[in-house]
Amino acid sequence: MPLIDKHDRSLMIYRCLIAVFSVVFLALPAQAQSGRIPVAADSGMVVSSHYLASEAGMEVLRSGGNAVDAAIATAFALAVTLPSAGNIGGGGFLVYHGADGYVTAFNFREKAPLAATADMYLGPDGRIQNNSNHEGPLAVGVPGTVAGLSLAHTRLGALPWARLVQPAVELAEHGFPSSRDMTGFLRRLAQTGDPLYAATRQAFLKDGEQVYAPGEIWQQPDLAASLKRIRDHGHDGFYKGETARLLADFMARHGGLITEEDLARYQAEEQPPIHGTYRGYDVYAMSPPSSGGIALVTMLNILEGYPLKALGHNSARYLHLLSEAMRRAFADRAEHVGDPKFNPNMPVDRLISKAHGAALRGSIVVDRASESDSSRFGGLYLASESEETTHLSVMDAQGDAVALTYTLEYSYGSRLVADGTGFLLNNEMGDFNPMPGHTDTRGYIGTPPNLVAPEKRMLSSMTPTIVARDGTPRLIVGSPGGRTIINTVLQVILNVVDFDMTIGEAVEAPRIHHQWLPNVTNFESLGISPDTRQLYEALGHRVRFRGTQGRAHCILTENGVIYGAADSRSYDGRAIGY
Ligand code: DON
Questions:
Q1: 447 CB near ligand 1 (under 6 Å)
Q2: Cα–Cα distance between 378 and 381 in angstroms, integer?
Q3: How many CB atoms lie within 10 A of CB 183?
Q4: Inter-residue contact 304 to 357 (CB < 8 Å)
Q5: What is the pLDDT of residues 535-560, one digit of tens each?
Q6: How many CB atoms are located within 10 Å of the residue 19 CB?
Q7: Which residues pair with 45 in a beta bridge?
Q8: Does the Cβ of 139 fall within 6 Å of ligand 1?
Q9: Roughly how many angstroms between the first and final C-alpha of the chain, as a whole number?
Q10: At 148, is the secondary structure helix, strand, or coil?
């Protein structure tokens, strides 16, 4: 009698086929590039939060586009496939380092509308009304993404603009498999009857009512039409004409402030990034209105004075020095940083100087946690920030590098879609300090650099960063995560520079976060041992565990090979090289 009968054998063959099919067609597209082993390639790399967006960028590289072209195509594709953070209704930053040594940055952070005022969120009692800085039409800033991508293309792009928008048009028009990651949002949306979200329901639910099951094909005809206007008319295809009119109509009907004039006046800016050095590397990170570059360079300057490697990775002593550096950089951030156009005297050069780093280092006690002194602001306590944003990294065959981080602020932003447009609007106005002069223990900060003003950009923590050696880009890094972004970027850099990790290891390693106030350190819930925690607490720190911190999609070059790592904390992330 055979060990396996005929029926069993055909069953086995069937099962094998299913397994192979699942691995090739199901598991691959649905999963992040795995963990510690980075993707290696010789000619180019795209790493983003969605496999279809990484593919769109990769196709652009393969057809002769440069890193900026590929970043633009990836960003537009993410606006379709990753609606929680990918966007055309939000804003962000792009840092560029060419293989030729040319370095620049693009600022497409949202702006406050012309009619905005410093106390626009306050009621007669001086308190914020109805969470209106985070929810509803008043929370929406004038979007910057399309202007930023268009400006970067004008300055540095190689392929025709339409070629870069087209993959997004096709994804929106023909559809793609809906992600399981969206299910929670879709369920909540299906339950709301609020007419304010009618167009959101139309865009995200089947027939405006039903939740798409994971894997079901999701088409977005209104978004496809908006993208076609951008494809055909560039910047003006968003800020003028049909899209601008639809946005302004929606705002007027629902008590929002953004007008066609706001949109017509919006311009992105090209500006130098923040530049620092760390152990022989050049660090280029986003300049204000992002606080990221300043805070990152401040922390690196502080930490450069310690033999970090000798302390051991994520040892209690090491985490102590990290969190002391974080505490100090975040205090500076709250005191000094805002939109430079409205804060002409921001002491940027002083904050990022080696002398300031050394002075801050001098105030650190190596075996005792310091207090987070908030007395200079009258006892403030910072609001928690949401953690939805997305970062992508690109390197092309010449060795040009792009780090791009953009956001809607909260996951799915304001959740508002203007009728007929098909895309989500940001709620970035919540990044301003909402109550002038008012600070309290519930989390509000009222310091002047970041108060609301017409056409002002709100302070950000997004930290797209490129680290170079001898004029050549080596490491491209960035992450979502609100204020944790800066600390995530810091730790990836330290993991590579001080601890010689591969980019896969550097991205996967457990992270911590301290932001000065509240005076507590967040540990990722997996990875830092109870023993380490005990030793760390014995130095005087307080610890809180959190799920995960950030989703760093990074690239590192070594000996001419390009390594890409999509953070396994990301649902659909993917590094694709060629
Ligand atoms: O610009 C900022 O710093 C925030 N609006 C970013 C929000 C964020 O990262 C949430 N994400 N993961």
A1: no
A2: 10
A3: 14
A4: yes
A5: 999 999 999 998 999 999 999 999 99
A6: 11
A7: 395, 577
A8: no
A9: 51
A10: helix
